Amino acid sequence: MESPARHVYRRLHAALGPQGWWPAETPFEVMVGAVLVQNAAWTNVERAIARLREADLLEPRRLARARRETVEQLVRSAGYYRQKSRRLQILCEWLLARCDGQVDRLRDAPLGRLRAELLGLHGIGPETADSILLYALELPALVVDAYTRRIWVRHGWIAPPADYHALQRRLADDLPVDVALYNELHALVVQVGKDYCKKRRPACDACPLADLLPDGGPCSDER
Predict the structure, then answer these.
(1) Does any domain span residue 49?
(2) Which domain covers residue 191, as residue numbers?
(3) Is the pLDDT of residue 159 over 70?
(4) CB 24 within 8 A of CB 30
(5) Backbone dihedral region of 180: left (phi > 0), alpha (psi from -120 to 50 degrees) or beta?
(6) Would the pLDDT of 222 be above 70?
(7) How far apart, in whole angstroms, are the C-alpha atoms of residue 122 and residue 88?
(8) What is the C-alpha to C-alpha distance for residues 172 and 151, in angstroms, rounded to an integer?
(9) Tens digit of each residue's pLDDT (9 = 90 or more) over 163-212
């Protein structure tokens, strides 16, 4: 029988079409967005990125050297602006030290080493690190998130509690190593999580994955 991850990908791609994610003009902008989107709605992140662009700060060296108070005000719409401004500038300092701010040069580094370095930066967790690796650097890092966990738990494909790495391993075991597939699957899962598999009052009847639910409806994900 086809694995859940493969089946979900085929089903959602047919129902929703390509998502064209991550929306950004440069790889560095993707990195900035990956930091700002932590605990934030994407529409609020877009406003923060637009303000950084207007201030000509969407470049590692300029953003690293900008006054912290200035950055805080520019990214305020993304929430937790003091923490996020600090995280952005730490990321920029790392980029300057690691590759002189030339993001494309990171693509030749071993994936495991890059991931470890990113995780060593203040405020960069597994989801943010993998988003940077996959979407900014086009490396095969499989991104999972709260939407992925919710969908997999509710369909009975993984038991709660399921931490990030356990869920990531489960999906990785089910899928070929493919950057384009990883990209599209995560984007499709996010769309389903936002539109159908909501934390409260999920719209199961309209969801493209409705018939894959176990008998009796969604499994509990309250643990």
Answers:
(1) yes
(2) 4-19+143-212
(3) yes
(4) yes
(5) alpha
(6) no
(7) 10
(8) 16
(9) 999 999 999 999 999 999 999 999 999 999 999 999 999 999 999 999 99
What's the confidence (pLDDT) of residue 1?
A: 58
* Tens-place pLDDT, residues 12-50: 999 999 999 999 999 999 999 999 999 999 999 999 999
Question: What pLDDT was estimated at residue 216?
Answer: 66
Same domain? 33 vs 11: no
| CATH number of the domain bearing residue 199 | 1.10.1670.10
Residue 82 makes CB contacts below 8 A (sequence gap 6+) with: 72
Rounded Cα distance, 42 and 78, in Å: 8
d(CA 219, CA 223): 11
Same domain, 11 and 97: no
Nearest alpha carbon to residue 127 among 60, 40, 221: 40
Instruction: Supply 30's token pair.
Output: 């993707």
Query: What is the biggest distance separating any 2 CA atoms in the chain, rounded to whole angstroms?
Result: 57
Torsion angle, alpha carbons of 156, 148, 138, 95, to 10: -130
Count the helices and strands in the chain (H runs, E runs).
11, 0
Question: Looking at residue 40, what is its pLDDT?
Answer: 94
pTM here is 0.94
CA distance 62 to 66: 6
